[in-house]
């Protein structure tokens, strides 16, 4: 499982780098076409909006993986070590449950509905289902990362044990 996790991490990291490079280029082209050429591109705003959605959602999965996500530990940090460990298991289980139920199941339903209704983006002319596909994909990534974190917690290893095995 560690090799699979390593490849998922590498793929996600490279995808996020590519998406960030793409959004920089798209926004730069929008500025140049609007202010230098005097003829703004009609597609760049929608491309930038779509890229921002994908970067935000996949970036959330990466932040969860690397422990860089926002977390409030005001109450849990005051608990004894055993209680902190149990609370970490409960909270990680809640994250996995949320990712599966809301992002994978709910996001999958949204993608399916968008394809069934044949919804198209206005400027790009692509199916909105392809744009919404980031929701179940992100949910799947967070669920996998949360599951690996739960395994580490159950084994009593550090939370980054999936990276070090």
Kindly provide the radius of gyration, computed on alpha-carbon positions and rounded to a whole number of angstroms. 19 Å
Oligomer: single chain
Q: How do the helices and strands follow one another from N- to C-terminus?
A: HHHHHH
Structural class: mainly alpha
DSSP strand (E) fraction? under 5%
Mean pLDDT: 91
Biggest sheet record: none
Q: If you had to describe this structure to a student in words, what would you say it looks like?
A:
- There is one protein chain.
- The protein has one domain (2-164).
- It has six helices and no strands.
- The mean pLDDT is 91.
- It has helices spanning 2-36, 44-66, 81-116, 128-132, 134-155, 161-164.
- The protein has 165 residues and is mainly α.
- It starts with a helix and ends with a helix.
- It is elongated.
- α2 (44-66) packs parallel to α5.
- Part of the tripartite ATP-independent periplasmic (TRAP) transport system.
- It holds the Pfam family DctQ.
- InterPro entries: DctQ, TRAP_DctQ.
- Keywords: Cell inner membrane, Cell membrane, Membrane, Transmembrane, Transmembrane helix, Transport.
- Belongs to the TRAP transporter small permease family.
Features:
6 helices; 165 residues; mainly alpha
Furnish the topology, listing elements before pairings.
Layout: H1 2-36, H2 44-66, H3 81-116, H4 128-132, H5 134-155, H6 161-164
Helix pairs in contact: 1-2, 2-5, 3-5
Subcellular location: Cell inner membrane
Function: Part of the tripartite ATP-independent periplasmic (TRAP) transport system.
Domain Tripartite ATP-independent periplasmic transporters DctQ component: 23-155
